[in-house]
Every structure is written in structure tokens, then in C-alpha cells.
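Renewal narrative, Specific Aim 1. Our central claim is that a sequence can be written position by position from structural information alone. The example that follows is taken directly from our test logs and has not been curated for this report. It begins with the C-alpha cells describing the chain, in the order in which they were read.
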């Protein structure tokens, strides 16, 4: 069974492929291809918006079919870092803050080259 720490490390390692992609390219991809962008643009909430669900469940539902979750997560970790809030990259803010610790350690340790 994978421990939470191992899971966060695996997610952070999967983002290495985006390490050299400029911020503006990531932003363009998320804005163009993000599955949630039509919701944000049209101010229509999803049908389950009024249900009492956890942040983690919301992330799972909102991002389930999104083809650019890794790009979204990379961008959010770069721009918001440990202050990330809400649902981005298919993860709850709690999970993203844990991934951020592993992600930052990898980047500072030069493990992406
Ligand atoms: S991963 Fe989630 S929050 Fe990010 S663009 Fe896709 S649907 Fe939106």
C-alpha cells in the first residue's frame, strides 16, 4: 500500500516534465483546454454544487475528465505555492499543499534535469 508521503512524491515527480515550460505557456494551455474553464466563463456551477461534499470530492468530480491536470497543477504550485486554495489540478488544497512540499524539494534539489 502506498503511503501518503509516497503518493505526494510520485505526483511531484510526474510534474518534472513541465519544469522547463514557461509560465505563460502553462497558462495558455489551462485557459484553452481546462475542463472547468467553461464553468468559470459561463458562471454556471456544476449540478452538484449545492451538495455537501468535501474539497477532495469536488476536485475529483470537477477535474475527473480534464486532460491537462498535470499542467494545471504545475501552474498552481508555481503561482500559489503553499498558499494554494480551492480546487486545481485534480487535487484538494490540502493534498496540493502536501505535494508542494515534495515539488519544491525536487526543484530546489535539481532533480528535474
Ligand atoms: S485540472 Fe481541474 S481545475 Fe485544472 S483546468 Fe482541469 S478541470 Fe480545471
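The sequence written for that structure reads:
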Amino acid at each position: 500500500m502506498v503511503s501518503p508521503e509516497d503518493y505526494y512524491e510520485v505526483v511531484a515527480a510526474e510534474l518534472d516534465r513541465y519544469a522547463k515550460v514557461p509560465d505563460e505557456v502553462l497558462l495558455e494551455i489551462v485557459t484553452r483546454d481546462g475542463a472547468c474553464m467553461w464553468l468559470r466563463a459561463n458562471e454556471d456551477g456544476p449540478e452538484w454544487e449545492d451538495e455537501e461534499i468535501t474539497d477532495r470530492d469536488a476536485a475529483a468530480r470537477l477535474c475527473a475528465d480534464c486532460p491537462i491536470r498535470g499542467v494545471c497543477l504545475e501552474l498552481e504550485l508555481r503561482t500559489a505555492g503553499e498558499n494554494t486554495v480551492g480546487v486545481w489540478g485534480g487535487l484538494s488544497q490540502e493534498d496540493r499543499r502536501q505535494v508542494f512540499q515534495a515539488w519544491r524539494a525536487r526543484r530546489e534539489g535539481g532533480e528535474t534535469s
